[in-house]
């Protein structure tokens, strides 16, 4: 009596890949496709391709939609309290415009990475302090935020010889972006460095860069992926949690602390265009024993107040589409930019 041989097990469908595990060909290929659409067809077809995607995202992602509206209403109230002339309270249409502004910025990010935007596309205010540090061979920590198009800082770095900018990012796509940046613009003075936490080895590496007169930029508006210390500071009329990484780094490396953003602004003389705004927050950062949290909170408040002034001029430049004032309560889920 022969026994039946069981059939070989069927292969199971693989689980959907995490975004961080997508291969380079898929990741870079998507960016190249967007850039190709612009290069071949122009900006209007690019928008026609991108805007329906954003409109669908806005309609189907209530978290992003509600977070956008929350921010816009807080900014509206803040401007009203400051005595500015404001219209009606923002609603659904303004929220959609907000996400569309982010979509339009995607193209500017690609153009900035490729070197297709010239120096005439960028006006700057306050970068004299950083240039003075460059002339002295000194580096600095620069606090940035998820506002506007920070990739355009490349233009400022290129037109000032000797400026090197290292950008810390909390994403495994950093090295892939670096390779893409090398393909699009081999001589770029901007380098992305992927970090999940500031380890002793990372601190030593950054100390070497600052000692060589380079700048290190780190986002100051998102709580890190890993469980880390945060401090509270007022932003647009309410308390929010802020990371302490920029201030700890500046204290460890004994270097000045600056804030930087590159946003679209409109004025009667120049019309609409990108403006690079830089401000020194501290010549040196000292975190006294027993008062460390208080000192870090003070620096975070300085950054938050400066960020408010930037957003008053450019309200649609805020690209944190998650419950910002609740971050720190639970790990935030944030769209990559």
Automatic annotation (TrEMBL):
Organism: Aquabacterium soli
Name assigned to this protein: Acyltransferase
Main location: membrane
CDD domains membership: LPLAT_LABLAT-like
GO CC annotations on file: plasma membrane
Molecular-function GO terms, alphabetical: acyltransferase activity
Record-linked Pfam families: Lip_A_acyltrans
InterPro entries, per database record: LipA_acyltrans (IPR004960)
Biological process annotations from GO: glycolipid biosynthetic process
Record's subcellular location: Cell inner membrane
Keyword presence, Cell membrane: yes
Annotated keywords: Acyltransferase, Cell inner membrane, Cell membrane, Membrane, Transferase
